[in-house]
């Protein structure tokens, strides 16, 4: 039986300083940093899913859509992962954060606390901090979104 890919959204949030939100997973002993991400419900619009997942995982609502990667990006889970899916097919979104750090709350959904900490960092640092099997995806996300962050902050665009 051939396993399928789970549909998923990936979310990059950046602030007025051009730094992106990286979150430390709560299910890892060591610091394992990543962007917020999550599953898409049946018949759910991808952007709606991204906003929902962002809120459920971080408490963040004060965002403005800046860009998205139009085609999905896939990664495979390591062979030793005993999951019903081969990997994830992700639809990536870039949002500008209009709020402040007091909005960040990892306990919105106490039954499923995904993250234990966060930091704001340069987007170029993200691929260095992510688990190996997601590096190729993170490199693509950086290539697509890094110039959009700086264009947005320079006032060249007001989102899509």
What does this structure look like?
The chain is α+β, with helices and mostly antiparallel strands. Helices cover 22% and strands 31% of the residues. The strands form two sheets. Strands 1, 4, 5, 6 and 7 form a five-stranded mixed β-sheet that branches. A three-stranded antiparallel β-sheet has the order 3-2-8, with no helix packed on it. It is globular and about 50 Å long.
CATH class: Alpha Beta
Major pleated sheet: 5 strands, mixed
N-C termini distance: 40 Å
Helical amount: 10-25%
CATH-derived topology: Nucleoside Triphosphate Pyrophosphohydrolase
The total tally of domains equals: 1
Residue stretches low in confidence (pLDDT < 50, at least 5 long) are none
CATH architecture: Alpha-Beta Complex
| CATH H-level homologous superfamily name | Nucleoside Triphosphate Pyrophosphohydrolase
By DSSP, the count of extended strands is: 8
Mean pLDDT: 93
DSSP helix count?
Answer: 3
- Taken from the alpha-carbon principal axes, the silhouette is globular
**What Rg, in angstroms, do the CA atoms define?**
15 Å
Features:
single chain, 31% strand, 160 residues, five-stranded mixed sheet, three-stranded antiparallel sheet, alpha+beta
């Amino acid at each position: 039986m051939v396993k399928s890919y789970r549909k998923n959204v990936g979310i990059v949030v950046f602030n007025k300083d051009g730094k992106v939100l990286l979150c430390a997973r709560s299910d890892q002993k060591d610091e394992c940093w990543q962007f917020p991400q999550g599953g898409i419900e049946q018949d759910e619009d991808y952007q709606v899913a991204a906003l929902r997942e962002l809120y459920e995982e971080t408490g963040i609502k004060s965002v403005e859509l800046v860009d998205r990667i139009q085609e999905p990006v896939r990664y495979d889970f390591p062979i030793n992962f005993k999951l019903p899916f081969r990997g994830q097919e992700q639809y990536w979104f870039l949002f500008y954060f209009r709020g402040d750090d007091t909005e960040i709350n990892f306990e919105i959904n106490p039954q499923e606390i995904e993250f234990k900490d966060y930091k704001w960092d340069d987007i170029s640092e993200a691929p260095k901090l992510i688990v190996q099997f997601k590096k190729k995806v993170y490199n693509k996300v950086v290539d697509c979104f890094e110039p959009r962050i700086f264009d947005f902050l320079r006032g060249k665009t007001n989102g899509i």
